[in-house]
Design goal:
Serine Threonine Protein Phosphatase 5, Tetratricopeptide repeat, ANK repeat, 18 helices, 313 residues, mainly alpha
Length: 313
């Protein structure tokens, strides 16, 4: 007999007896249980048998990973997760849904990072705390916005409403970026709109002094995103800081001109962006635009709009 599942069945049936509850969770010299080893090596059938036989899924290995952490690192973990929750319900034994491993990751973090969207939704419905941050201070909402999981963003807020939980829409990671920074970076208007309607503050700056408006103007020439940002920000009482200075003193307008984003630059000028503001090197919008003098359409637009607005340069 060399099938691991058969051997495990025989061991559990004939060898453990009354001491099964203690032996089944025995740890080796590295602090790992049989369940940890089975999950780490993707031996799903063995893990299933151990769980059915009473192995404790809340015990952590030396890396701080519980059974749930390890399962969320697997491919197609749904069947094991279903079994885990069935056992939990049957034994009235709650799971450590929000336990951190040594990397500061919760099970929800891992599910999202491994693109296990259905698992992440399941965890949220089971009560996983979406506001917990990892070592980089990223919450579930940060990861959702980075990964463009639009459906999950809606689900997260829906479940939070049902459970009367507050979502930290303005949580800042180690770099000072909010979920809105990431939504604007990825031109994800759907999620950006959701965040703004949920009260996200568009005036919060990251460590480089950049607000979401900077991000939108530095990465893409997307006027619809800018228009949405202004309209919803004004609706929700937060006014966009049109002339905010970011890294090296660059304003959103100077950024749009620097990257040659004609439509974005025109939109900002018509919203009232000040072309006379200088960066750390003393450059005004005119100086920045002059470096793009090969872009005739950009140059013509710049002077035309400023003339229409009677704006001094």
């Amino acid at each position: 007999m060399n099938h691991p599942k058969a051997l495990m069945k025989l061991l559990l049936k004939n060898c453990l007896g009354k001491r099964q509850s203690k032996l089944i969770d025995a740890q080796d010299k590295e602090g790992k249980t049989a369940l940890h080893l089975a999950l780490a090596h993707c031996r799903k059938k063995v893990a299933r048998l151990l769980l059915k036989s009473g192995a404790d899924p809340n015990l952590a290995n030396p890396e701080g990973s519980t059974a749930l952490h390890l399962i969320c690192k697997m491919n197609r973990p749904n069947a094991l997760l279903k079994l885990l929750f069935e056992i939990s319900d049957k034994k009235n034994q709650p799971f450590s849904l929000d336990a951190w491993d040594k990397e500061g990751k919760t099970v929800l973090h891992l599910a999202l990072e491994n693109r296990l969207k259905d698992v992440a939704e399941w965890l949220l419905r089971k009560g996983a705390d979406s506001n917990l941050a990892d070592k980089e201070r990223s919450t579930a909402l940060h990861i959702i916005c980075k990964m463009r999981f639009n459906h999950l963003a809606n689900i997260l807020f829906q479940i939070s409403d049902e459970k009367h939980r507050h979502v930290l829409v303005d949580a800042q990671d180690d770099e000072g970026n909010t979920p809105l920074h990431f939504a604007m970076c990825h031109v994800n208007r759907e999620v950006a709109r959701l965040l703004l309607r949920r009260g996200a503050n568009p005036t919060l700056a990251n460590k480089d002094g950049e607000i979401p408006l900077h991000i939108a103007c530095f990465w893409y020439n997307d006027v619809e995103s800018l228009r949405m940002l202004f309209e919803l920000s004004n609706d929700k009482y937060h006014s966009v800081q049109l002339n905010a200075k970011g890294k090296r003193g660059m304003t959103p307008l100077n950024g749009a001109l620097y990257f040659g984003y004609e439509e974005a630059a025109e939109f900002l000028l018509r919203q009232g962006a000040d072309p006379q503001l200088t960066d750390e090197l003393g450059n005004t919008a005119l100086h920045v635009m002059s470096k793009n003098s090969h872009n005739k359409d950009l140059v013509e637009m710049f002077f035309k709009v400023n003339d229409e607005l009677n704006q001094q340069l």
